[in-house]
Amino acid sequence: MISRPFLSRGLTALLVAVAVLPVGPAVAVPAPPAPAPGSAPAPGLASGPGPAPGPMGDLVPGVRPAPSQPWSFDTPDQVLAPQVYTPSKKEDAVEPADALQGTYDLIEYVPLNDAARKVACSKLTGPYQRQVEYWLKLKVDGKQSAADCRAIRAFQLKHKIKPAIGFAGPVTWSRMQLLSARKNPNAAGKCPVRTYRVTCVDLGRQLTWVQKGKKVVYAPVPVRTGRAGYATRGGWHKVYWKHKNHHSTLYDTPMPYSQFFSGGQAFHAVYGSIYTTVGSMGCVNMRLADARKLWSVLKTGDRVYVWGRRAAG
Questions:
Q1: Averaged over 285-304, what is the pLDDT?
Q2: Over pLDDT 70: what percentage of the chain?
Q3: pLDDT tops 90 at residue 158
Q4: Looking at residue 256, what is its pLDDT?
Q5: 247 in Cβ contact with 43 (< 8 Å)
Q6: b/e for 186-212, b at 16 or more Cβ within 10 A?
Q7: Which of 43, 52, 153 is nearest to 87 (CA)?
């Protein structure tokens, strides 16, 4: 799950983030090492209790392989479901490590030339120019005027989007979609209303919330869903397993507060930016605080509804 720089239509320069941040699900907090032969597994790892290895051996999501076993098995996480077991109270008592400060900062993807020259206001047209113009009630012509740049820059400064240079990129547009959804995320009626809790995953807007009837019980938060070829599956699903300290053996990365709803696909936190322009390998990636709160809201058996289509990437 390695992200590539965002390529803006009409730009020849690569779009890069000005700040150096983890990209995709890169791990800011190192995963604990595999236990040495004969030693006890580290707290919070799924290598302790659980069912005996199946036909795939130990290479199943969430069960660390033996030290001598390679990590090269490359099955997408949505194909293999994890081995399900009941974590001990001791394991569940371990809280996932906090993310490093700045991990989830709103870092916009900007043209390389603008970043290198540290321009105060970009003259270039961003990939979300029309959408941002419409949201800010500017003239919608898809062209970056000086007035457009000033208005976009003012929004970025207010919402701590860096660098605030007025470039209409994916992070700026993502923030606007979140703000628009806060009052009534299901205004379009795309997520089915039921008497029970339904976790809504809007792939188009890259948002997740929980509703019971028409009442929102978990406000919308930004997420990152499956990339091209590894799409988060649409339709109805059910939370079938919760594992607070899950660790993916397929990608050798921690998946804090995992709540699995379809095969190997789960809601879980990542120790890296969720605003990268390339998606996950199928899971619904979240910021740590958002995943922790969702963990307290959902129960095993709760329903999940996924719809829409994520923008290419």
A1: 98
A2: 74
A3: yes
A4: 96
A5: no
A6: beeeebeeeeebbbbbbbebbbbbbbe
A7: 43
Would you state the structure tokens that stand for residue 238, as one six-digit string?
Answer: 């059910």
Length reported for the chain: 313
pTM of the predicted model over 0.85 = no
Which string of b and e fits 65-80 if b means at least 16 CB within 10 Å?
beeeeeeeeeebbbeb
Distance, in Å, from the CA atom of 306 to the CA atom of 201, rounded to the nearest integer, reads 5
Q: Which of 79, 72, 47 is nearest to 245 (CA)?
A: 47
- Residue 184: Cβ within 10 Å count: 11
Cα Rg, the chain, nearest whole Å: 21
